[in-house]
Fold this sequence. Notes:
This protein is 79% helix and 0% strand. By secondary structure, the protein is mainly alpha-helical.
Amino acid sequence: MKYGYKHLLLILVSFLGFLSCSEYNKILKGSDYDLKFEKALEYYEKNQCYRTLPLLDELMSYFRMTNKGEEVYYYYAKTQYCMGDYYLAGYYFKRFVKNFPQSAKAEECAFNAAICMMRNSPDYYLDQSDSYKAIDEFQLFMSKYPNSPWVDSCNTLVKDLRSRLEKKSFEKAKLYFKMEKYRSAVIAFKSALSEFPDTRFKEDIMFLALKSNYLYAENSVITKKMERFEETIKSYHNFVDSFRNSNYFREAENFYSSSLKEIEKLKLESNGI
Length: 273
């Protein structure tokens, strides 16, 4: 009897699902466009975006030159976002702002376009082109809508994106260091510090730049050692001026003193002593 009840319940659920699909297909294939739009919004509010999208696909062209065109366009962009297609959603949010610049929803759509760019931004170890684009979009938004209630959110999100870029830049330089490509590491560490002067990795970057300079000098041909150990000494002074109480201080001192000794040795050798 218990099995029979479950079986009947399953049949009932399947039947209701069939009726629901049948109703949806009837609306989709019908010619009542006002009903289609009404149902599209109803499905959207129920988070059934997979049903909303086919309806709005058709309504985009049908209502293009009518009073409903703006609202259809708005929900089409939002439905693309709901479906997780952030590239298309971002495209339609930007097109909305261009097509309906005086709309009360233009500001929201401009913000959402930037959010879509951010959504497309991958983890730090992957290509960060979309992170740069997202930062540009947020900054463009704040420039255009300086009094927007979303400005604080933009600043927070830009900070998060820059943090991701900092991490990417730092890890790229560290990879060169681990691969013992010290010249490339020195260039990459300097580039990271130039692009992100206030980075949270500043101490590590400056120390590893010093260490890379030392190892680069140590492994150089004799004719290049002098100038490269001198670069190491400059790197040391830059580091200790910024982080005199660093946990790396003792190791930095060793690189400094070793560089001085190497320079003195090279001077003696050049004088034939």
